[in-house]
Amino acid sequence: AAMSRKGVKLLVDSLTRSSKHFNKSEVECLVSLFDTLVAKASSDFAGVGFNRVVFRDVLHSAFGMTDDVVLDRVFSVFDRDNDGCITVMEWVESLGVLLRGTLEEKIKYCFQVYDLNGDGYISREEMFQMLKNSLLIQSADEEPDEGVKDLVEIALKKMDHDHDGKLSFTDFEKAVRDENLLLEAFGPCLPDIK
Fold it and tell me: Which SUPFAM superfamilies does UniProt cross-reference here (predicted)?
């Protein structure tokens, strides 16, 4: 059910006011793209939003994101009310962070993506999972898991400021502020510069 022109205008105005990162014409484009994706989705959420499958296609085609674990986590971060559906508000607000977020917003976003079980820490196991998926397998004689374990230990040594064997948000934030390249330390979850 397509929204009336007046409804679309009200929605765009509201989202433009709430969005810190997009101007009105950009919000209009994002809403239009959203409508196209919803129409393409033809899922249980018809008219409300789109599901994980459509979302993954978009992130893959628009931003070249391919890692399944990362894509699932990004979906979970976008899907704030955890109903399996990306609504237009979740879409515009989350893309604002993804594309134009401040360093603070991106640190929070990346941390949420890497905190696989949502307990407020990035554990050794979570680092292992993320790094294992984002690394290319080396020569056949090298045990790949050993290399990943070494990387986890290096990451902890560099980032675990309170030395409790896992990364809290504070640890992660401090490490990234000291060295911005660590923002995506456990796998690419932001679009590249283009």
Answer: EF-hand
